[in-house]
Amino acid sequence: MSAPPLFGAGDPSADCIADSAGGLTFDLDAPGLPDTTGDWSAALVLRRRGSEEETEEVRLPLAPDGNGRLRAVLPSTVALPEGRWDVYAASADAEPRRLVPGLADLRSLVDRRPGPSTSPLAVRIPYATKHGNLSLRSWLRGPHAEAGDLLLSPTGLTGHGRLYRVQDPAAWLSGAVVEARLRRDPSVVRTAPVTAAEGAATDGTDGQDFSFTLRWAELAGEWHGGLDVWDLWLRTADGTGSARMARLLDDIADKKQIFTYPAKDVDAAYAPAQAGPYYTADNDLAIRVDERPPAAR
């Protein structure tokens, strides 16, 4: 009699545990796991979505954990290029099968504060797709400007952030600016000076915290109808270093629908407009300027 399928009849499920360094542990149910493993060939397979070239794939060995389950580990030191990675389980020569999400312990990702380092910051957040499958959202940033509180006023946006993955954050931020780049014409740029947090050298922040204020009127001056999007970057005074502003250090894979902000009315020269911040599909921080709805005029 042949052994039952390694992962059972249905799609196998995986529990995920995240650590504060950016690593992930996957625990899979394996109802057909034999008592003696012999020549073990099971693997967790990550496939990057949307690649037009040869499929980009990362294979992690799956090993029995002694409790009837299989375990694979994705350490933070394993480079996983930015993007969305679909998760599969493979056994011997069988076609890899999609995993479905089990329990997710992502507590270590909430309010994550990475330690000092100049290596790229690895962020991986597991999530369920709209079809109920398990996928990962991966970022690899260095340097990284983590967006914090955003305060909207009738005249502009005041933002707070924290800089990671540079040798000397205080020196990097000295004279730095936040740069708004117009997406339809990247040569059009508006800047706002950065203010380092007071007492940064003595309160344990190591000079990493900063704030800035961008005025709506400066962005709306380039608006001539339709939708304008301004991408926000943190740039050094001499222009040799830059970091995309984004919100990555938590357990939310897609922030666009979660962190929403009201648009503020702007009296643009072209027509009545409105402006406000939002997070893109990649969790990067941007500002949109658009026509004010007639009912709001």
Helical residues, percent: under 10%
Helix- and strand-based class?
Answer: mainly beta
Mean pLDDT: 89
Total strands: 22
Give me the strand/helix succession: EEEEEEEEEEEEEHEEEEHEEEEE
Q: What portion of residues belong to β-strands? A: 35-45%
**Gap between N and C termini, in Å?**
76 Å
Number of discrete helical segments = 2
Supply Rg: 23 Å
Please, how many domains? 2
- Major beta sheet, specifics? 11 strands, mixed
The 3D shape can be described as elongated
Low-confidence stretches: 34-39, 200-204
Structural overview:
The chain has about 300 residues and is mainly β. The chain folds into 2 domains: about 15-140, Immunoglobulins (Immunoglobulin-like), CATH 2.60.40; about 145-295. It is built from 2 helices and 22 strands. It has helices spanning about 170-175, 215-220; strands at about 15-20, 25-30, 45-50, 55-60, 65, 70-75, 85-90, 95-100, 100-105, 120-130, 135-140, 145-150, 155-165, 175-180, 190-195, 195, 210-215, 230-235, 240-245, 265, 270-280, 285-290. Strand 3 and strand 4 form a beta hairpin.
